[in-house]
Amino acid sequence: xxxxFPLLVAVxxxxxxxxxxxxxxxxxxxxRQDQTDFVVKDTANVGKIFIADNKxxxxxxxxxxxxxxxxxxxxxxxxxxxxxLHTFHNVYIQRPVAKEAQEQVNRxxxxxxxxxxxxxxxGKWIKTWYVGHGTMxxxxxxxxxxxxxxxxxxxxxxxxxRGFLGMLDTRxxxxxxxxxxxxILEYGDMQLKEVDVSYPSQPETSFKIKFGGGNDIQLFHxxxxxxxxxxxxxKVKDYMLNxxxxxxxxxxxxLTEAQEDSVKNLVPYQIIKVTDANQTREIRLWSRPAxxxxxxxxxxxxxxxxxxxxxxxxxxxELAFAQRLTWDNFKAPIQAFLPEADL
Length: 343
Fold this sequence. Notes:
The protein has helices spanning 4-22, 33-36, 78-90, 99-112, 176-179, 233-240, 257-264, 324-327; strands at residues 46-52, 58-64, 67-70, 74-75, 91-96, 114-120, 125-134, 141-147, 151-152, 157-161, 183-185, 192-198, 207-213, 216-220, 246-247, 270-276, 280-286, 309-314, 320-323. By secondary structure, it is an alpha+beta fold. The chain folds into two domains: 27-179, no CATH class; 183-342, no CATH class. β8 and β9 form a beta hairpin.
């Protein structure tokens, strides 16, 4: 027993030394926890995400009581913000980059990688991802990690995400117009007070609805202070369901500023004013020319107006694309709510 004890001690010392050096080798040769811990386990504690690209574009997402904001000015797309959090939580290292390829990968990333800084709800920096390009097989994404404790890694890794096949870099876009929420009307609880719908080219079809909740609905002719005594309450209620949720498509109209101004100077075919307890918003809708090659429903006659998209704005702000399929639901004239005998 006395002879075995010294041998056992020697073995323990050798194992201890091996473990020590395995955690303290050059970062270019061995993966360490500080270089591979890309995952953000508690995404509910993420309060700010900063994204910058090599073209000088920057996006800052902040979690506010009413949802995510982008650059402190606009509501952000909740789906896109959720996708980032989902990515932070579910990534894993698919494989390390071979040592002989690291220099080339780092060189490419230095000129093209996006910097993604992640902060907690108190504004404390958690970690930073450097999101590079996709692999040749498009089944992984090159990334580097930087943390407050260990600084920036020298060795890149190829990351993937559970339940996903493809590249992750496209999720970290820096185009402000793509980040802005396109939800324009969002009255799921129907907490609105008044709807004023006007058709500048056909003013006789315009109307106003005052809503006090439940069956407290009043319908008015344009410019009249006296409510209409006979109308189809069910049809008005059905019409108001459109206000539960309606969105634009995106703010990237591909028009120059001068072209957008030209569109906004035209008479819109419809103006919708929505008043709730906090504000009144005015939505303007314009038809747009049909794109080349589009036909009418018969598929033979060339279309003059775009059958799929229209132009739209809120409070005369930036012009946006909107889907005609969605916004045509708002085109009902007042006559649609009146008994035939009153027409």
